[in-house]
């Protein structure tokens, strides 16, 4: 338990904090970008942005390049889901993440690119980037039914005067290419003299005809309603107040690697919790200085940094392949969309997620030598986040080297022999898994119809039921990654 802080000290700290914050903001003009402004630690949330993606309130700690965070959820029905994230860019900041609930056939790939703006008595966090939600047992085999989602922005009101209040504002757009539907949801901010907090309004449109099929209303943190325009029938869509929250679970701190969020920022977080802002600033500065030193060393050695757990998507925005919109990065593995058992083992081969599971770096994408320099021999000393051995350097010129290859076969759901590489972790190491040919896996396909009818939202919103299917046992073996092809790797949009 933390010691109680005397009231006099709290009041003094409050005045001091207000003065510091006011001094910083006084140097800004409305609309200014806060991305490169160093903020005092007292307004920082004691966790990194990679962890905050799942839930957030205050400004999180800025992740460093190559920082990772993993967690998992255990549900009451005995199923489990997994989350993997990595900071794939520092300037501008970009966080890439992956979520999957294999037995519920749900996968999410996303990239978050937050920008901060000063708006007078408010500060805004502009949540750029997208997430691609895929229902893998619907739509086209191997691709699923995709929902491409943008996020609303976040606003902190009353940072100089008045009561501090957080709001979601602006629009979230959801587009489903398979159903030719799009939803535009407005998160309404409260006005000075009217309105209410947390209100939403929106519509669902048929992209082929432009017809508005449904209207949405209510509160995003309470009851949300949907009304069919043709009939005027209105019904409850979702009640957030009754939704049960399942907290994420993480490996113990002592099992985490130095670059993992909770271990990396542990000293800073503990100082923030203890309200020791001098120590918090000191610990935070140490990490930022370490990052600057490593960046300088990479520049000196001509080493181009690459993510460890994610790779660039194939194709281009709004083009063929995986290049949907602004996703940019996708998990560096091919995950079986049909067999939950295989998918789980493949996910656990990418990164350590479960307690007792040991991380491994055998299949990370190594840093690449810059074309302007040939000093790759010195790159092995470029720091914790830029390690490179002579062995990995021998294959580093090929972007597809050291990728994890999980070959899942053709698009009919009949996979060839699954190729799962042996992991160092106890959960996936030295063991056979259920590979199978996928013939018994249930994979619903959308049937074409010549007579189009507006989709039934009740059917679209029907919860996906967890399923499992028997499969034949296959031996684990790895493939020569240097000979692999990027075309063998499929993500949410393949």
UniProtKB/TrEMBL annotation:
State the UniProt keywords alphabetically: Lipid transport, Lipid-binding, Transport
Biological process according to GO: lipid transport
What Gene3D superfamilies does this protein's entry cite?
2.40.160.120, 3.30.70.3490
Q: Where is the composition biased (Polar residues)?
A: 392-415, 444-453, 462-484
Q: Which GO terms describe its molecular function?
A: sterol binding
Question: What would be one Pfam family of this protein?
Answer: Oxysterol_BP
Q: Which GO terms describe its cellular component?
A: cortical endoplasmic reticulum; cytosol; membrane
Q: Does the keyword Cytoplasm apply?
A: no
Keyword Transport carried by entry: yes
Region of interest: Disordered: 361-494
Q: Give the matching InterPro entries.
A: OSBP_sf (IPR037239), Oxysterol-bd (IPR000648), Oxysterol-bd_CS (IPR018494)
Which PANTHER family does the protein's record reference?
Answer: OXYSTEROL-BINDING PROTEIN, OXYSTEROL-BINDING PROTEIN-RELATED
Q: Which family does it belong to?
A: Belongs to the OSBP family.
Q: By what name is this protein known?
A: Oxysterol-binding protein
State the organism named in the record: Ajellomyces capsulatus
Organism taxonomic ancestry: Eukaryota, Fungi, Dikarya, Ascomycota, Pezizomycotina
């Amino acid at each position: 338990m933390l010691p109680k802080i005397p009231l006099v000290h709290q009041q003094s700290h409050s005045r001091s904090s207000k003065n510091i914050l006011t001094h910083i903001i006084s140097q800004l003009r409305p609309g200014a970008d806060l991305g490169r402004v160093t903020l005092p630690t007292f307004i920082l949330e004691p966790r990194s942005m990679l962890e905050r993606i799942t839930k957030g309130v205050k400004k999180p700690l800025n992740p460093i390049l190559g920082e990772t965070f993993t967690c998992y959820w255990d549900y009451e029905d005995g199923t489990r889901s997994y989350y993997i994230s990595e900071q794939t860019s520092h300037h501008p900041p970009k966080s890439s993440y992956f979520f999957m609930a294999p037995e519920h056939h749900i996968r999410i790939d996303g990239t978050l690119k937050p920008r901060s703006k000063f708006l007078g008595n408010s500060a805004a966090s502009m949540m750029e980037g997208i997430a691609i939600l895929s229902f893998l047992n619907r739509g086209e085999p191997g691709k699923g039914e995709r929902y491409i989602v943008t996020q609303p922005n976040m606003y902190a009101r009353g940072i100089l005067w008045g009561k501090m209040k957080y709001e979601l504002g602006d629009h979230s757009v959801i587009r489903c290419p398979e159903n030719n539907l799009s939803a535009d949801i407005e998160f309404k901010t409260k006005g000075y003299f009217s309105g209410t907090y947390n209100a939403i309004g929106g519509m669902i449109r048929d992209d082929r005809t432009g017809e508005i099929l449904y209207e949405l209303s209510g509160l995003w943190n309470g009851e949300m309603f949907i009304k069919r325009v043709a009939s005027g029938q209105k019904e409850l869509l979702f009640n957030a107040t009754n939704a049960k929250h399942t907290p994420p679970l993480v490996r113990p701190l002592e099992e985490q690697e130095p670059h993992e969020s909770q271990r990396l920022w542990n000293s800073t977080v503990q100082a923030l919790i203890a309200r020791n802002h001098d120590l918090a600033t000191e610990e935070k500065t140490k990490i930022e200085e370490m990052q600057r030193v490593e960046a300088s060393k990479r520049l000196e050695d001509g080493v181009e940094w690459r993510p460890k757990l994610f790779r660039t998507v194939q194709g281009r925005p709004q083009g063929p392949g995986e290049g949907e919109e602004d996703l940019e990065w996708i998990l560096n593995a091919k995950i079986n969309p049909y067999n939950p058992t295989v998918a789980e083992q493949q996910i656990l081969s990418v990164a350590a997620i479960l307690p007792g599971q040991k991380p491994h770096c055998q299949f990370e994408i190594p840093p690449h030598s810059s074309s302007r320099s040939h000093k790759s021999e010195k790159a092995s000393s470029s720091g914790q986040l830029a390690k490179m051995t002579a062995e990995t350097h021998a294959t580093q010129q090929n972007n597809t080297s050291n990728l994890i290859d999980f070959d899942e076969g053709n698009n009919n759901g009949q996979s060839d022999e699954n190729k799962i590489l042996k992991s160092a972790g106890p959960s996936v190491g030295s063991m056979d898994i259920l590979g199978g040919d996928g013939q018994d896996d249930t994979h619903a396909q959308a049937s074409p119809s010549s007579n189009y009818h507006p989709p039934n939202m009740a059917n679209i919103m029907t919860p996906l039921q967890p399923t499992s299917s028997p499969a034949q046992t296959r031996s684990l073996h790895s493939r020569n990654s240097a000979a692999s092809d990027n075309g063998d790797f499929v993500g949410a949009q393949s």
